[in-house]
């Protein structure tokens, strides 16, 4: 009967998953499917053309499956198939359904919980009885050609056992959501070919036990030596240390030379000491309140980063653990940006040399939106890093008082990664060998497919969220189980003793040796290469320890400006521009020849062109930044013709000079937090690149406030991490409502201290030119926040000349530009930004001769010397007014009034002219906006009233 089935039964299509798997296998390798299935699929691909010949083509899966479904509905049966054979054929289809069910659902029945708190769920689809198969069918031989168990023919009993061993023991694999058949078959071959079991040597098992001993030993040592101090213990999740050790060692053999790790505080101290090789004695000093650096602020020990070089079988690997605040998961995009910079420095386009590893908590992985935002960058241009290995330390509890039922709405905490079709290996943390096997698969998959992958280590947390908590108060049942648990290391040591790999005495000696090493403040083994330095390492020393200075020669010779202008306005032959863009390019060419004044876009372009021509890299990203939200930039030109030309785009700034620095412009995904975090990370790894993030509107940067607060403004004083990141935030009150007016100048000024960041609001093309060049030419790196204009981009008075670029520099303060009699000036109106042009127009209308208008272009560090010099020009000055567009409780006023007062002379008065205090950044009614604008101009030139300070 079986022989008859093999010879005659085919084309029975009542089971769609089976048919689809066969067809996918056929597309990948026609020889991998039975002959008559192959013949049928071959026939389906032969399609007559309109001229009568036959063309071969691939067909989509859905029509194939549908055709078989229709055949089943119509009762289609080949005449030569006998009824007995048909019964076996039906059973064979059911067997394929069982195989598919285990691949889809086996993870739900896997033995994943070390605490075994709940019964494993019933999954009817995994039971042969669900398909009408009985005990009598268990010893019938069926085809197993679409599996990787090593046999073409197996009994149903053997098939079910192999499936259970593969998919339902200590590893639960989720991968059938992947659309790429090659990736699915790769996973099937690896896990089914090994029945989901690692093949480890005795030495490999001893290394696992060594890592578990170190992980547990450090936690217990700290728990007894520093009782009650916070350390966010890893106890219960020690297998993680074995996993990350395996990643590092195996990555080295795969050619990886750098690994950048991002993780929150759970287990961080363990990674610092047992993975990166931080000295235990240094850690002990931190517990005792000592510090070995001169940072102005510093940070707690479980936020610290670290770098080292370790030995692997494939050679040295540089490890970097990123500094991280207590904002869960926010370090993820920072790590990805740092990795991207390192990869580009090496020319590592596929991510074969630099690997990102991100470590997550289970509740944070499901709950934090930055996870989704970062995952959404994975396959986009300008952000891909060749795949990230994610490790989830799954404590099965979100916080000390959290009920797991309230931590997410998905089945698994890792379900968010299905959006990018990343596979997930759920693994029982009490089975370290299974953890190592899952780790090996994960790294190999990442290296093969350059795709993200997740290792979900299901474990527990022996202590509370921190060591001062008593979790049993809110989780009594869970912590009764935990109290009874002997520990992963003890279980594995017992397992190795039973296998005769070690003796019980050996296991105890490992513990004693580790504790002795801790007592001496040294490692039980030395993993660090102290004398190794990669040729790709960046020397930051020229940029560190420098005192603040505004001085920088940012001028560019006129001849070079003309050459650059010609290069950025030269368009390839037959490249057809849109008429509006054609006018922009033509206008820029005229500006470059000195025929017309320069606008903002030209000032930017010449800054970028001069930098890349000098060998610097420029990277600018953000929503619409290629064109510019307000269509002023046009760095990327789009071909309007029908014929294909270089994929339809041309970027003049990529073609400025031979051997120039790279120019990268990326229209980012609609994200602020992840993209800004990415660019910050990039900037911390590459001091020789002008890295710019541009907000669509400056207001939208508030979606990335964590990155601004925890990294950009404070990273240097907390961690010593320098960054030259530039943020461009369009800002200006033009009656566009509360979300399209204010970039929240006041928030950035509130963050300013210790010369940590630069806050500027330039008002001319020459100013943006010199400001951008200053950011790279000065030998120090500080974040730069630029409040860029909107209406000034095309304002007829907001222009500059080529001479302003060739002879000038960035002016922190711009004094009165009109011819005035200094002796007649009684009032000086200070301002910043676009309101300057409104003030000039209003003064002209009022025909005032006794008022000077002074622009403060750099709000921090405050330019005391320059402002003081301007004010002293007017001997009869009695009144100084600060005028701003923003409401009184917002904008610069409250943050800089004390700086202005320092520069006033005795008896001079300081007043405010601007919008009244408001809960909203701006009004939404245009008429109301105009009314307020008129009132603030009247106040600027009228009688001082309201808030007035006398020196």
Automatic annotation (TrEMBL):
Keyword Cytoplasm: no
Enzyme Commission numbers on file: 1.2.4.2
Alphabetical list of InterPro entries matching this protein: 2-oxogl_dehyd_N, 2oxoglutarate_DH_E1, DH_E1, KGD_C_sf, ODO-1/KGD_C, THDP-binding, Transketolase-like_Pyr-bd
UniProt keyword list: Oxidoreductase, Thiamine pyrophosphate
Transketolase-like pyrimidine-binding domain location: 598-795
Cofactor(s) required, per the database record: thiamine diphosphate
A Pfam family per the record: 2-oxogl_dehyd_N
Domain of life, per lineage: Bacteria
Presence of the UniProt keyword Oxidoreductase in the record: yes
Family: Belongs to the alpha-ketoglutarate dehydrogenase family.
Function: E1 component of the 2-oxoglutarate dehydrogenase (OGDH) complex which catalyzes the decarboxylation of 2-oxoglutarate, the first step in the conversion of 2-oxoglutarate to succinyl-CoA and CO(2).
PANTHER family recorded: 2-OXOADIPATE DEHYDROGENASE COMPLEX COMPONENT E1, 2-OXOGLUTARATE DEHYDROGENASE
Name recorded for this polypeptide: oxoglutarate dehydrogenase (succinyl-transferring)
Gene designation per UniProt: sucA
């Amino acid at each position: 009967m079986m022989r008859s089935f093999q010879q005659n039964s085919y084309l029975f299509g009542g089971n769609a998953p089976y048919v689809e798997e066969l067809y996918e296998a056929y597309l990948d390798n026609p020889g991998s499917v039975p002959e008559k299935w192959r013949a049928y699929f071959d026939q389906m691909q032969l399609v007559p053309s309109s001229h009568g010949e036959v063309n071969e083509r691939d067909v989509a899966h859905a029509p194939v499956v549908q055709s078989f479904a229709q055949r089943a509905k119509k009762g289609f049966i080949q005449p030569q198939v006998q009824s007995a054979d048909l019964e076996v054929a039906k059973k064979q289809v059911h067997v394929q359904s069982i195989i598919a069910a285990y691949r889809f659902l086996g993870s739900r029945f896997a033995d994943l919980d070390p605490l075994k708190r709940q019964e494993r769920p019933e999954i009817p689809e995994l039971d042969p009885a669900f398909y009408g198969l009985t005990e009598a069918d268990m010893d019938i031989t069926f085809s197993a050609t679409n599996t990787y168990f090593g046999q073409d023919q197996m009994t149903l009993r053997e098939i079910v056992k192999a499936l259970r061993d593969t998919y339902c023991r200590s590893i639960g694999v989720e991968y059938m959501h992947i659309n790429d058949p090659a990736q699915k078959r790769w996973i099937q071959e690896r896990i089914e070919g090994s029945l989901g079991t690692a093949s480890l040597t005795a030495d490999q098992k001893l290394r696992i036990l060594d890592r578990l001993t170190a992980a547990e030993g450090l936690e217990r040592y700290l728990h007894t030596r520093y009782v009650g101090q916070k350390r966010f213990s890893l106890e219960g999740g020690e297998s993680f240390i074995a996993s990350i050790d395996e990643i590092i060692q195996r990555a080295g053999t795969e050619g990886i030379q750098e690994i950048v790790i991002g993780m929150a505080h759970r287990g961080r101290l363990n990674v610092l000491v047992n993975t990166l090789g931080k000295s235990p004695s240094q850690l002990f000093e931190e517990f005792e309140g000592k510090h070995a650096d001169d940072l102005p602020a510093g940070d707690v020990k479980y936020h610290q980063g670290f770098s080292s070089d370790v030995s692997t079988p494939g050679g040295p690997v540089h490890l970097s653990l990123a500094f991280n605040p207590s904002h869960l998961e926010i370090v993820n995009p920072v790590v990805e940006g740092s990795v991207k910079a390192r990869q580009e420095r090496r020319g590592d386009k596929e991510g074969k040399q630099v690997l990102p590893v991100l470590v997550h908590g289970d509740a944070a992985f499901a709950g934090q939106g930055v996870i989704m935002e970062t995952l959404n960058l994975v396959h986009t241009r300008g952000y891909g890093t060749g795949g990230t290995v994610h490790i989830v330390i799954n404590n099965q509890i979100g916080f000390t008082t959290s009920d797991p039922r309230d931590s997410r709405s998905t089945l698994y905490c890792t379900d968010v990664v299905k959006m990018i079709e990343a596979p997930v290996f759920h693994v029982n943390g009490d089975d370290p060998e299974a953890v190592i096997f899952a780790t090996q698969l994960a790294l190999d998959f990442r290296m093969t497919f350059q795709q993200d992958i997740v290792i979900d280590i299901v474990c527990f947390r022996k202590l509370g969220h921190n060591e001062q908590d008593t979790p049993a108060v809110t989780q009594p049942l869970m912590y009764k189980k935990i109290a009874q648990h002997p520990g992963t290391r003890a279980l594995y040591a017992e397992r190795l003793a039973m296998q005769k790999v070690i003796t019980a005495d050996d296991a105890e000696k490992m513990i004693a040796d580790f504790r002795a090493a801790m007592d001496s403040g040294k490692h039980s083994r030395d993993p660090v290469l102290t004398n190794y330095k990669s040729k790709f390492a960046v020397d930051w020393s020229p940029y560190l320890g420098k005192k603040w200075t505004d001085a920088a020669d940012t001028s560019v010779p006129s001849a070079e400006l003309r050459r650059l202008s010609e290069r950025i306005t030269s368009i390839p032959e037959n490249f057809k521009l849109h008429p509006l863009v054609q006018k922009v390019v033509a206008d820029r060419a005229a500006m470059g020849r000195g025929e017309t004044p320069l606008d903002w876009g030209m000032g930017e372009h010449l800054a970028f062109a001069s930098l890349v021509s000098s060998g610097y890299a420029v990277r600018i990203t953000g929503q619409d930044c290629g064109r510019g939200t307000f269509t002023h930039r046009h760095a990327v030109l789009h071909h309007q013709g029908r014929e294909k030309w270089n994929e339809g785009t041309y970027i003049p700034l990529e073609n400025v000079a031979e051997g120039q620095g790279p120019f990268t412009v990326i229209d980012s995904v609609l994200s602020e937090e992840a993209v800004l975090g990415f660019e910050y990370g990039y900037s911390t790894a590459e001091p020789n690149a002008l890295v710019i993030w541009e907000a669509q509107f400056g207001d939208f940067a508030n979606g990335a406030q964590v990155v601004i607060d925890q990294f950009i403004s404070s990273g240097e004083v907390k961690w010593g991490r320098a960054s030259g990141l530039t943020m461009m935030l369009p800002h200006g009150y033009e009656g566009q409502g509360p979300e399209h007016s204010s970039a929240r100048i006041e928030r950035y000024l509130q963050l300013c201290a210790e010369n940590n960041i630069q806050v500027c609001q330039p008002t001319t093309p020459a100013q943006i030119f010199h400001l951008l060049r200053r950011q790279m030419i000065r030998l120090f790196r500080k974040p730069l926040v630029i409040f860029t204009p909107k209406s000034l981009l095309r304002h007829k008075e907001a222009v500059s000349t080529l001479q302003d670029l060739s002879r000038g520099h960035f002016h922190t303060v711009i004094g009165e530009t009109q011819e005035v009699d200094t002796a007649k000036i009684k009032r000086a109106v200070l301002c910043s930004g676009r309101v300057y042009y409104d003030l000039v127009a209003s003064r002209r209308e009022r025909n005032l001769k006794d008022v000077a208008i002074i622009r403060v272009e750099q709000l921090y560090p405050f330019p005391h010397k320059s402002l003081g010099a301007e004010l002293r020009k007017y001997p009869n000055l009695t009144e100084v007014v600060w005028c701003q567009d923003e409401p009184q409780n917002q904008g610069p006023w409250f943050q800089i009034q004390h700086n202005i007062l320092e520069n006033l002379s005795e008896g001079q008065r300081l007043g405010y002219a601007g919008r009244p205090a408001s809960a909203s950044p701006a009004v939404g009614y245009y008429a109301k906006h105009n009314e307020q604008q008129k009132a603030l101009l009247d106040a600027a030139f009228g009688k001082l009233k309201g808030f007035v300070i006398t020196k």
